């Protein structure tokens, strides 16, 4: 049964960073579909995916095996066009112990979102095999810079990645380093950073801050690193940095104007990082 995963924000649920999975299976002249919200814990080979609730199911009676095959192929193609990634391994129901949702730990961090520009177009041009190789090199380069900057990978998003940093300067430096590293692969990325609080319980993270960070990244053009005013203000106010030290650093900002971020309350002033 081919399975597909897409990690992102549901516009109707701005309080959490949520994901969705689809399963497509053909048996004779019938196609069985299963889909729903999932929880993704960990990354890489150790990643675990769980249904957050009972998934929805639907059976399509196509009449003939050929029609069912065509339907299944089209359903799989739609998932790929909608930036779903193939998912290997099972999707299990999450068993929560009593009280596991209580006592969530609240954390303040700088959140980084990386996204490849025109990834679908590049994938179609290169083909599945070559694109898979490029993506392998891409994630290796990104994770190398994350390790150097002491960033914490939260989740991958098919062609992007979400990570957190304790200090805003580390997140910005990592973003610019990733840009340089992936250019050798012929890739252009957009990056957004936001600073805010989120809640964590085990491997699950929730919070409006992730949603805002994603919207900041969406405002960036190819090759741009955009930060919210929260990141800039936090950088200036950090006790470990004096204003004189910031002025001597490599971090420079250019005002990018005030923006309405889709699905986010209020308007936010954004800044472009200058190299």
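Q: What amino acid sequence fits the structure above?
A:
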């Amino acid at each position: 049964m081919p399975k597909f995963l897409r990690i992102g924000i549901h516009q109707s649920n701005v309080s959490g960073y949520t994901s969705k999975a689809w399963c497509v299976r053909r048996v004779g002249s019938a196609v069985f579909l299963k889909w729903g919200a999932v929880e993704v814990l960990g990354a890489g080979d150790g990643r675990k995916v769980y249904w957050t609730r009972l998934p929805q199911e639907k059976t399509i009676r196509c009449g003939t095996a050929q029609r069912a095959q065509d339907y299944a192929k089209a359903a799989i193609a739609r998932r790929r066009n909608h930036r779903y990634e193939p998912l290997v391994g099972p999707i299990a129901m999450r068993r929560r112990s009593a009280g596991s949702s209580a006592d969530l730990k609240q954390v303040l961090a700088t959140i980084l979102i990386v996204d490849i520009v025109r990834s679908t177009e590049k994938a179609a041009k290169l083909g599945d095999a070559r694109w898979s190789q490029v993506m392998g090199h891409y994630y290796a380069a990104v994770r190398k810079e994350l390790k150097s900057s002491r960033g914490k990978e939260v989740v991958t998003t098919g062609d992007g990645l979400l990570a957190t940093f304790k200090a805003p300067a580390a997140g910005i430096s990592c973003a610019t380093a990733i840009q340089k590293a992936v250019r050798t692969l012929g890739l252009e990325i957009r990056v957004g950073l936001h600073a805010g609080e989120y809640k964590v319980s085990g491997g699950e993270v929730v919070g409006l801050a992730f949603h805002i960070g994603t919207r900041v990244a969406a405002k960036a053009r190819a090759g741009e690193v955009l930060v919210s005013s929260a990141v800039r203000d936090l950088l200036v106010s950090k006790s470990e940095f004096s204003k004189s030290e910031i002025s001597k650093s490599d971090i420079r900002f250019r005002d990018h104007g005030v923006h309405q971020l889709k699905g986010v309350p209020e308007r936010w002033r954004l800044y472009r990082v200058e190299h």
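Q: And what stands out in the fold?
A: The chain has two domains: 3-93, 105-274.
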